[in-house]
Structures are given as C-alpha cells and as structure tokens.
Amino acid sequence: MSYKIIMGNGIEQTISFTSAKFKNLNVWSVYFDDGKEAMLYKCGNEWMQRNEGELDAHSLINIGKQIDYTNTL
User: Fold this and answer.
1) Is residue 13 within 8 Å of residue 4, measured between CB atoms?
2) What secondary structure, in 3-state letters, does the chain show?
3) 73 pLDDT more than 80
4) I need a surface site. Which of 1, 20, 27, 69 has the fewest CB within 10 A?
5) Which residues, 6 or more positions from 29, have their beta carbon under 8 angstroms from its beta carbon?
6) How many angstroms separate the Cα of 56 from the Cα of each of 14, 61, 65, 73?
7) Which domain holds residue 67?
8) In the prediction, which pLDDT does 51 show?
9) Please, what is the Cα angle at 22 between 16 and 27, to 5 degrees?
10) pLDDT, tens digit, for every residue of 22-69?
11) Among 73, 1, 65, which Cα is nearest to 31's?
C-alpha cells in the first residue's frame, strides 16, 4: 500500500514500507517513489534511522507517524 507524506522540504512524496524483525528490533524498510530507500526503527517513542540514512528530522517524524497509524488499523 502507498502513502503520501510531506517531506521536510515541503515536497509531497509517495512511500510504501514493509516490516521485518532484526535481532530484537522491529525494523521498517521505507521505499520512496524516486527509488530511494530508508531503514527505520523505533526506540521507545522515538523513530530512528540507520546511520547512512539521509532523512531530515521532520521527514522522519512524519514517516514514523504514518507507520504508527498504519500499525493501529
């Protein structure tokens, strides 16, 4: 399923994501319509990305909110 997200630069982007288990963490692979990918995970209530991720804080929060919302459905 695809979702529209407003990125930190104000541009709307379409994303999709899948979840997986890595060691003791739930991780989400996020795929952008421009071909880029990001790996996210959650520590407590805070969303994090792998060190090589290039998402700004605003984008990371918005994507995390969408994942949280989708997981509650």
Assistant:
1) yes
2) CCEEEECCCCCEEEEEEEEEEECCEEEEEEEECCCCEEEEEEECCEEEECCCCCCCHHHHHHHHHHHHHHHCC
3) no
4) 1
5) 17, 18, 19, 20, 37, 38, 39
6) 16, 9, 14, 27
7) 3-71
8) 73
9) 30
10) 888 889 999 999 899 999 999 989 999 987 778 999 999 999 999 999
11) 1
Q: Which residue has the tokens 């379409």?
A: 14
User: Phi and psi dihedrals of 38, rounded to 5?
Assistant: -145, 150
Answer whether residue 5 shows pLDDT above 90.
yes
Q: Is the pTM of this model over 0.85?
A: yes
Locus of tokens 């996210």: 40
42's tokens: 């959650």
